[in-house]
Amino acid sequence: MEIPSKINFNFYIGALSVLVRQNNIIWTNFFALENCLAFVLELARCKLFSINNLFTKLKEILLTHLHVIVLDVLFITFFMFNNYSIVLGDTANHSLCLHLAQLNHFSFFLLFFFPWLNTKVFRLFDRNFYNLKNILLFIMHFVLFYAVMSFFDKFSYVHEFIYADNRHYSFYYFRRIYLNEMLRHVMIIWTAIVYSLILLDNEKILLDTHVMSFLICCGLILVPAKLFEFRYFAPCYISLCVVLHFLSAKWKDLYYLVVNKYNVIWLIILNAISIYGFIRMPFKNPFFDFENSRMMW
Q1: Which of 43, 244, 271, 288 is within CB 3.0–4.6 Å of 255 for a Cys-Cys bond?
Q2: pTM
Protein backbone atom coordinates (compact mmCIF):
# COMPACT_ATOMS: atom_id res chain seq x y z
CA MET A 1 0.00 0.00 0.00
CA GLU A 2 1.39 3.43 -0.94
CA ILE A 3 1.72 5.81 1.97
CA PRO A 4 -0.05 9.13 1.27
CA SER A 5 2.24 12.14 0.85
CA LYS A 6 0.73 13.87 3.91
CA ILE A 7 1.62 10.88 6.13
CA ASN A 8 5.06 10.78 4.52
CA PHE A 9 5.64 14.45 5.32
CA ASN A 10 4.39 14.06 8.91
CA PHE A 11 6.69 11.08 9.40
CA TYR A 12 9.77 13.09 8.41
CA ILE A 13 8.77 16.06 10.57
CA GLY A 14 8.13 13.75 13.54
CA ALA A 15 11.41 11.88 13.02
CA LEU A 16 13.32 15.19 12.84
CA SER A 17 11.76 16.46 16.07
CA VAL A 18 12.68 13.22 17.89
CA LEU A 19 16.26 13.42 16.58
CA VAL A 20 16.51 16.98 17.97
CA ARG A 21 15.16 15.95 21.38
CA GLN A 22 14.26 12.38 22.22
CA ASN A 23 11.29 13.05 24.51
CA ASN A 24 9.58 14.85 21.61
CA ILE A 25 8.25 11.37 20.87
CA ILE A 26 5.49 12.33 23.32
CA TRP A 27 4.41 15.35 21.24
CA THR A 28 4.46 13.34 18.01
CA ASN A 29 1.72 11.23 19.63
CA PHE A 30 -0.39 14.26 20.61
CA PHE A 31 -3.07 14.05 17.90
CA ALA A 32 -3.05 10.25 17.89
CA LEU A 33 -3.73 10.34 21.63
CA GLU A 34 -6.46 12.92 21.08
CA ASN A 35 -8.18 10.66 18.54
CA CYS A 36 -7.87 7.66 20.88
CA LEU A 37 -9.41 9.66 23.75
CA ALA A 38 -12.26 10.75 21.47
CA PHE A 39 -12.80 7.11 20.50
CA VAL A 40 -12.87 6.00 24.17
CA LEU A 41 -15.34 8.76 25.10
CA GLU A 42 -17.53 7.88 22.12
CA LEU A 43 -17.42 4.25 23.17
CA ALA A 44 -18.33 5.14 26.77
CA ARG A 45 -21.32 7.25 25.71
CA CYS A 46 -22.83 4.56 23.47
CA LYS A 47 -24.66 1.74 25.18
CA LEU A 48 -24.77 -0.21 21.94
CA PHE A 49 -21.70 -0.17 19.72
CA SER A 50 -21.62 -2.72 16.91
CA ILE A 51 -18.49 -4.81 16.33
CA ASN A 52 -18.33 -3.64 12.71
CA ASN A 53 -18.35 0.04 13.72
CA LEU A 54 -15.76 -0.67 16.39
CA PHE A 55 -13.30 -2.28 13.98
CA THR A 56 -13.98 0.32 11.28
CA LYS A 57 -13.17 3.12 13.71
CA LEU A 58 -10.04 1.35 14.97
CA LYS A 59 -8.85 0.77 11.41
CA GLU A 60 -9.44 4.44 10.60
CA ILE A 61 -7.38 5.58 13.61
CA LEU A 62 -4.54 3.17 12.79
CA LEU A 63 -4.35 4.26 9.13
CA THR A 64 -4.59 7.95 10.02
CA HIS A 65 -1.70 7.68 12.47
CA LEU A 66 0.36 5.05 10.65
CA HIS A 67 3.42 7.35 10.63
CA VAL A 68 3.15 7.76 14.42
CA ILE A 69 3.01 3.99 14.94
CA VAL A 70 6.13 3.55 12.79
CA LEU A 71 7.94 6.26 14.79
CA ASP A 72 6.87 4.67 18.08
CA VAL A 73 8.15 1.25 17.01
CA LEU A 74 11.47 2.77 15.90
CA PHE A 75 11.74 4.70 19.17
CA ILE A 76 11.03 1.60 21.28
CA THR A 77 13.75 -0.22 19.32
CA PHE A 78 16.19 2.64 20.00
CA PHE A 79 15.18 2.62 23.69
CA MET A 80 15.93 -1.09 24.03
CA PHE A 81 19.29 -0.87 22.24
CA ASN A 82 20.23 2.21 24.32
CA ASN A 83 20.18 0.22 27.59
CA TYR A 84 16.56 1.25 28.26
CA SER A 85 17.36 4.95 28.35
CA ILE A 86 16.11 7.77 26.12
CA VAL A 87 19.22 9.85 26.91
CA LEU A 88 22.18 9.93 24.58
CA GLY A 89 25.36 10.56 26.57
CA ASP A 90 25.22 11.55 30.23
CA THR A 91 22.62 9.09 31.54
CA ALA A 92 23.80 9.37 35.18
CA ASN A 93 22.66 13.01 35.51
CA HIS A 94 19.45 12.47 33.55
CA SER A 95 17.84 9.69 35.54
CA LEU A 96 14.07 9.32 35.62
CA CYS A 97 12.03 9.99 38.76
CA LEU A 98 8.49 10.85 39.86
CA HIS A 99 8.90 14.64 39.94
CA LEU A 100 5.26 15.72 40.26
CA ALA A 101 6.29 19.21 41.41
CA GLN A 102 7.28 19.90 37.79
CA LEU A 103 3.56 20.39 37.11
CA ASN A 104 3.46 23.00 39.89
CA HIS A 105 6.45 24.79 38.35
CA PHE A 106 4.71 24.75 35.00
CA SER A 107 1.51 26.15 36.54
CA PHE A 108 3.42 28.96 38.32
CA PHE A 109 5.33 30.03 35.27
CA LEU A 110 2.37 29.82 32.96
CA LEU A 111 0.92 32.62 35.08
CA PHE A 112 4.27 34.45 35.04
CA PHE A 113 4.94 34.27 31.30
CA PHE A 114 1.27 34.86 30.42
CA PRO A 115 0.33 37.40 33.13
CA TRP A 116 -3.02 38.30 31.54
CA LEU A 117 -4.32 34.99 32.90
CA ASN A 118 -4.07 36.55 36.36
CA THR A 119 -6.74 39.11 35.47
CA LYS A 120 -9.30 36.39 36.13
CA VAL A 121 -9.11 37.33 39.83
CA PHE A 122 -11.08 40.50 39.04
CA ARG A 123 -14.10 38.23 38.83
CA LEU A 124 -14.01 38.18 42.64
CA PHE A 125 -14.77 41.92 42.67
CA ASP A 126 -17.84 41.53 40.47
CA ARG A 127 -21.09 41.58 42.47
CA ASN A 128 -22.77 39.36 39.87
CA PHE A 129 -20.24 36.64 40.64
CA TYR A 130 -21.67 36.03 44.10
CA ASN A 131 -24.49 33.59 43.66
CA LEU A 132 -24.79 30.18 45.29
CA LYS A 133 -23.82 28.17 42.21
CA ASN A 134 -20.68 30.20 41.45
CA ILE A 135 -19.53 30.20 45.06
CA LEU A 136 -19.98 26.45 45.49
CA LEU A 137 -18.25 25.65 42.18
CA PHE A 138 -15.38 28.04 42.95
CA ILE A 139 -14.84 26.50 46.40
CA MET A 140 -14.96 22.98 44.93
CA HIS A 141 -12.44 23.86 42.18
CA PHE A 142 -10.17 25.70 44.62
CA VAL A 143 -10.09 22.81 47.09
CA LEU A 144 -9.34 20.40 44.24
CA PHE A 145 -6.50 22.51 42.79
CA TYR A 146 -5.04 23.27 46.22
CA ALA A 147 -5.12 19.61 47.30
CA VAL A 148 -3.55 18.39 44.05
CA MET A 149 -0.82 21.05 44.02
CA SER A 150 -0.02 20.47 47.70
CA PHE A 151 0.26 16.73 46.98
CA PHE A 152 2.51 17.38 43.97
CA ASP A 153 4.67 19.60 46.16
CA LYS A 154 5.60 16.56 48.26
CA PHE A 155 7.30 15.04 45.21
CA SER A 156 9.86 17.80 44.67
CA TYR A 157 13.52 17.24 43.83
CA VAL A 158 16.49 19.58 43.72
CA HIS A 159 18.85 18.40 41.02
CA GLU A 160 22.58 18.81 41.63
CA PHE A 161 22.82 21.03 38.54
CA ILE A 162 20.43 23.61 40.06
CA TYR A 163 23.04 24.69 42.63
CA ALA A 164 25.99 24.10 40.33
CA ASP A 165 25.54 27.02 37.94
CA ASN A 166 24.35 30.54 38.78
CA ARG A 167 24.23 31.57 35.12
CA HIS A 168 20.69 30.22 34.77
CA TYR A 169 17.48 31.82 36.03
CA SER A 170 16.39 28.49 37.49
CA PHE A 171 19.25 28.81 40.05
CA TYR A 172 17.71 32.01 41.47
CA TYR A 173 14.13 30.75 41.23
CA PHE A 174 14.96 27.76 43.43
CA ARG A 175 17.16 29.60 45.94
CA ARG A 176 15.17 32.82 46.34
CA ILE A 177 11.59 31.73 45.66
CA TYR A 178 10.79 28.03 45.59
CA LEU A 179 12.77 26.99 48.69
CA ASN A 180 11.01 29.69 50.71
CA GLU A 181 8.16 27.59 52.12
CA MET A 182 5.89 30.53 52.94
CA LEU A 183 6.32 32.10 49.50
CA ARG A 184 5.81 28.73 47.82
CA HIS A 185 2.57 28.23 49.77
CA VAL A 186 1.33 31.69 48.72
CA MET A 187 2.11 30.81 45.09
CA ILE A 188 0.12 27.58 45.38
CA ILE A 189 -2.88 29.44 46.85
CA TRP A 190 -2.74 32.17 44.18
CA THR A 191 -2.40 29.63 41.37
CA ALA A 192 -5.30 27.59 42.74
CA ILE A 193 -7.48 30.73 42.83
CA VAL A 194 -6.66 31.76 39.24
CA TYR A 195 -7.12 28.30 37.74
CA SER A 196 -10.32 27.76 39.73
CA LEU A 197 -11.78 30.93 38.21
CA ILE A 198 -10.62 29.91 34.72
CA LEU A 199 -12.22 26.50 35.14
CA LEU A 200 -15.40 28.11 36.49
CA ASP A 201 -15.80 30.05 33.23
CA ASN A 202 -14.86 27.03 31.11
CA GLU A 203 -16.54 24.18 32.97
CA LYS A 204 -16.28 21.55 30.23
CA ILE A 205 -12.70 22.24 29.19
CA LEU A 206 -11.24 19.25 31.06
CA LEU A 207 -13.52 16.96 29.06
CA ASP A 208 -12.27 18.33 25.74
CA THR A 209 -10.09 15.68 24.08
CA HIS A 210 -7.56 18.26 22.82
CA VAL A 211 -7.08 19.57 26.35
CA MET A 212 -7.00 16.07 27.85
CA SER A 213 -4.30 15.06 25.36
CA PHE A 214 -2.34 18.25 26.12
CA LEU A 215 -2.43 17.61 29.89
CA ILE A 216 -1.38 13.97 29.49
CA CYS A 217 1.51 14.92 27.19
CA CYS A 218 2.65 17.65 29.61
CA GLY A 219 2.66 15.12 32.43
CA LEU A 220 4.61 12.55 30.41
CA ILE A 221 7.16 15.17 29.35
CA LEU A 222 7.71 16.97 32.66
CA VAL A 223 7.13 14.51 35.50
CA PRO A 224 9.97 12.02 34.74
CA ALA A 225 12.59 14.81 34.59
CA LYS A 226 14.48 15.42 37.84
CA LEU A 227 16.16 18.59 36.55
CA PHE A 228 14.08 21.77 36.42
CA GLU A 229 14.76 24.14 33.52
CA PHE A 230 12.63 26.89 31.99
CA ARG A 231 13.39 25.56 28.52
CA TYR A 232 11.54 22.34 29.38
CA PHE A 233 8.31 24.36 29.43
CA ALA A 234 8.74 25.93 25.98
CA PRO A 235 7.19 23.01 24.01
CA CYS A 236 4.31 22.96 26.53
CA TYR A 237 3.70 26.72 26.08
CA ILE A 238 3.74 26.37 22.30
CA SER A 239 1.46 23.33 22.40
CA LEU A 240 -1.00 25.16 24.67
CA CYS A 241 -1.22 28.04 22.18
CA VAL A 242 -1.72 25.56 19.32
CA VAL A 243 -4.44 23.66 21.22
CA LEU A 244 -6.31 26.85 22.15
CA HIS A 245 -6.00 28.06 18.55
CA PHE A 246 -7.72 24.87 17.37
CA LEU A 247 -10.45 25.45 19.96
CA SER A 248 -10.65 29.25 19.65
CA ALA A 249 -14.26 29.19 18.45
CA LYS A 250 -15.24 27.05 21.43
CA TRP A 251 -12.93 28.51 24.08
CA LYS A 252 -12.56 32.02 22.62
CA ASP A 253 -12.36 33.80 26.01
CA LEU A 254 -9.61 31.49 27.27
CA TYR A 255 -7.77 31.74 23.95
CA TYR A 256 -7.55 35.52 24.18
CA LEU A 257 -6.35 35.32 27.78
CA VAL A 258 -3.26 33.54 26.45
CA VAL A 259 -2.88 34.88 22.91
CA ASN A 260 -3.17 38.67 23.13
CA LYS A 261 -1.00 41.75 22.69
CA TYR A 262 -0.42 42.23 26.42
CA ASN A 263 1.16 38.82 26.85
CA VAL A 264 3.16 39.26 23.64
CA ILE A 265 4.48 42.64 24.82
CA TRP A 266 5.41 41.13 28.19
CA LEU A 267 7.32 38.25 26.52
CA ILE A 268 9.16 40.71 24.23
CA ILE A 269 10.18 42.81 27.26
CA LEU A 270 11.40 39.73 29.17
CA ASN A 271 13.49 38.51 26.26
CA ALA A 272 14.82 42.00 25.47
CA ILE A 273 16.04 42.35 29.07
CA SER A 274 17.58 38.86 28.94
CA ILE A 275 19.37 39.56 25.64
CA TYR A 276 20.62 42.93 26.92
CA GLY A 277 21.91 41.33 30.12
CA PHE A 278 23.57 38.52 28.18
CA ILE A 279 25.39 40.94 25.88
CA ARG A 280 26.15 43.87 28.17
CA MET A 281 26.39 42.46 31.72
CA PRO A 282 28.99 39.68 32.01
CA PHE A 283 30.13 38.73 35.52
CA LYS A 284 32.77 36.59 37.21
CA ASN A 285 31.37 33.20 38.11
CA PRO A 286 32.55 31.78 41.47
CA PHE A 287 31.44 28.28 40.39
CA PHE A 288 33.57 28.16 37.25
CA ASP A 289 36.87 29.64 36.21
CA PHE A 290 35.20 31.92 33.69
CA GLU A 291 36.04 35.62 33.47
CA ASN A 292 32.89 36.52 31.56
CA SER A 293 29.90 34.44 32.60
CA ARG A 294 26.52 35.51 31.23
CA MET A 295 22.95 34.99 32.33
CA MET A 296 20.80 32.75 30.13
CA TRP A 297 17.54 30.85 30.19
Answers
A1: 244
A2: 0.86
